[in-house]
Amino acid sequence: MSEPALQLSDQDLPLQRIWRWEQERGAETYLTQPLGGGALRNLSWAEAVGEARRMAAHLRSFGWEPGARVAIISKNCAWWLLADYAIWMAGCVSVPVYPTLTAHSVRQILEHSEARACFVGRLDAWDTMRPGIPDHVHRVRLPLAPDDAGSDWDAIVAATAPLQDRPVRDADDLATIIYTSGTTGMPKGVMHSFRNIAVSIKTIAAEFRHAPEDRLLSHLPLAHVGERLLVETTSYFSGCRVFFSEGLETFAQDMRRARPTLFGSVPRLWTKFQQGLYAKLPKEQLDALLQDPQERPAVARQVLTQLGLDAVRVAVTGAAPLPPDIVQWYRDLGLELLEIYGMTENFALSHCSRVGRNRVGYVGHAWPGVDTRLDDNGEILVKTPAAMLGYYKEPELTRQAFTADGYLRTGDVGELDEDGRLRITGRAKEQFKTSKGKYVAPAPIENKLGAHPKVEACCVAGASFPQPFALLMLAPGEWERCRDEQARAALMQSLQAHLEAVNELLDPHEQMDFVAVIPEQWTIDNGFITPTFKVKRAAIESHYGSLFAAWARSRETVVWQT
């Protein structure tokens, strides 16, 4: 263990931090929520915590047992956070649910967790999700939610007297059950205590020097541990302000309004930022300006301002690999993009690049208090003070998740450099064997293929074939543009050149025979990617598997599937 874990005090626990800011920053704006049509609602710390106090009193009125589970089903909004705080104040346990799940998946989680109630907020598919909520589950409708989603939050707040005390929870109390999105099977309920949450955010806040003056933009699902850590827990630990995004249509405007100082996102968005700029200014022209010592400072500042990133002092990327050349591109703009690595099972407290000590392609050093080792097959094993209490109702799965001496089995394969920085090279269970008996790890290859500006996502396959190959999903709008024969021919030529360049970087057994360009968009709704934008390999291979042999027989290096 390179650095000792930070010591916690009771004042580091979530509710204690919330009470602190209610008292010290009561009049300061805490949450900025778009209401549509350009309207905004600002809630001060006193107003926000006041609403949570009243909702907590409402939950207490049911007389449920301590630790009763209460779900939150909503896209990100101010009241998502306040619902979570109210659940904790009432002595209950929060169960976040992804806002894009099917009714079947919603019912699985609510029944497995034995949820007594659920908060329903902004949703794009409420009509299809509603049948998943059992009739006996009490529903509360958050502001901006569908009209028939339950008892009205505002009405309850108006009619209910607030809690007068400052309830706190023991550090080892169960705080939340986070159901993993997973790529297959029934999600597992990861149990975390208030201690786990506190040690994770205190460690990260110390490194990034979080302060009340910081600004955050919430845009990734709060049901995922990454956004929960980087936005919710950061906000109540440091007392800083949170802005919310309405969606993709207003995202650029939301970014410029917030001008976040701390910003984390996933590779898909960092790539889209770059591709959006290249669509306005050709890559060659922009790159030439950035290479000119005299032009570069002004151009870089203009680019970051246009993206809403000009005030960012800490930027992180995580959840999946980001091509190293894109990481370097941002760093050339003056944005030292840091890679972060963690899991739901350790509340994201595992590894992160450090300012001035980063290495492109590596997720950095272990956080203080975290110990890392590799087992015989290269799987990354992590011992962390934020390790989960276990999987809810799954003692055998919990036992399998840890080694005998307490290391969490991550399922990722990696390597450590001479300075202790970690590089993720693939998933232990995703490796497949070709007909030549060679194992292939798809993730590093996908990382390289995904650097093409017209490629939105890719999936490397080829089990039992002589060589691997890849399925490519184009960026939105590209398929339509390629209805023009000249445009399609130019793209196919570009993809072929890209495939050849990638193959030159691979070992012979990893080199791809071909890439297949598919017409569909892989989305959360059609089941091809998870809510955290990870490709569901099993779903993709099942859907397209009957075409693999014909693609291979065609002997084309770029297959255009119609």
How would you describe this protein?
This protein is of the alpha/beta class and about 550 residues long. It has three domains: about 10-25 and about 45-210, Rossmann fold (3-Layer(aba) Sandwich); about 245-425, ANL, N-terminal domain (Rossmann fold); about 430-560, 2-Layer Sandwich (GMP Synthetase, Chain A, domain 3). About 35% of the residues lie in helices and about 20% in strands. The protein has 19 helices and 27 strands. The strands form seven sheets. It has a five-stranded parallel sheet, with helices on both faces. Strands 12-13-14-15-16 form a five-stranded mixed sheet.
Keywords:
five-stranded mixed beta sheet; 27 strands; GMP Synthetase, Chain A, domain 3; 562 residues; globular; Rossmann fold; 35% helix; single chain
How do the strands line up in the largest sheet?
A: 4-3-5-6-7
- Which architecture name of the largest domain does CATH use? 3-Layer(aba) Sandwich
Our count of helices gives 19
Would you state the CATH class of the largest domain?
Alpha Beta
**Mean pLDDT, rounded to whole units?**
91
Query: Unreliable segments (pLDDT under 50, ≥5 consecutive)?
Result: none
Q: State the total count of DSSP E strands.
A: 27
The main β sheet shows up as: 5 strands, parallel
Structural class by secondary-structure content: alpha/beta
If you compute it from the alpha carbons, what radius of gyration comes out, rounded to the nearest whole angstrom? 24 Å
- The first-to-last residue Cα distance is 53 Å
How many structural domains in the coordinates? 3
